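Can anyone check this?
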Amino acid sequence: QVQLVESGGGLVQAGGSLRLSCAASGSIFSVNAMRWYRQVLGKQRELVARITSGGSLYYTDSVKGRFTISRDNAKNTVYLQMNSLKPEDTAVYYCNADVRSNERYLEIWGQGTLVTVSS
């Protein structure tokens, strides 16, 4: 069984910073792309950032210059450093990864972590 476990969410004032972590565990052969999504209640889940196994990066426009995605391949862990946070960044943040496990290719999701930015 393969799972993603997230940590690092919480309450922060506008202008502050948080760092999210997401670790993949289980029977893993390799982890390819890793992503962070976020979702506000009643809205669609939004792709925030992505990092491939080769280090290629993507950010949605609203977080460019403020958020940084990175990964530690040895630990199968992805991070999201969030700076200059705004109230509109408030959401549940989900980790997502493409994993090769026991000759199967899986897309797995974390349980979500709540980020609340107060004005």
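Reply from J.R.: I decoded it. The radius of gyration is 14 Å.
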